[in-house]
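Work Package 3 (structural annotation) set out to generate three-dimensional models for the target panel prioritized at the project kickoff. During this period the team completed the workflow that converts sequence records into discrete structure tokens, so that structures can be stored uniformly alongside our sequence database. As a representative example, we reproduce one entry of 161 residues exactly as it appears in the project archive.
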Amino acid sequence: MASDISIFERVVRSAYRHTEASELPGGGEEGHPFEVRNLHVDLPADVRRLFDNGHYSQATFEALKFLDEEVQRIANTSDYGKSLMMTAFNEKNPSIALNALSTVTEQNEQEGFKFLFAGTVVGIRNPRGHKSGVVDDPESCLDYLGLASLLLRRLDSAGVR
């Protein structure tokens, strides 16, 4: 038999989905914020579950771990984090080329995305993975998930995933 506290927790989480969710950016009658924000469909289901349960920092962390793992898989390396991103997207000899790299503009784009991927891991994922007490609000979480979605879509449009 379930304890009183676990029953209470289920009731609170259920009520949250019907009240707080409507106050989230893009929530309520417009639909779930993930659909309103057009977040990438390949983000793990746990990300949405964590978000819906109010665990915004953990949702951000899980999404960015997924991004890191996708780059690791595509680059076929065991490297991770900043060093993975700096190597995988290196504009001189990348393991993941986002374009043909045949013009200065294309090389600059590759370099820019190298820094976007690395900065996302260092500046957003790492604090949530190495420091306790990082707190995100729903709007910040959605912004971070939007950035993760942008980077995943860039991999998609390059034809590497």
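Residues 35-158 form one domain.
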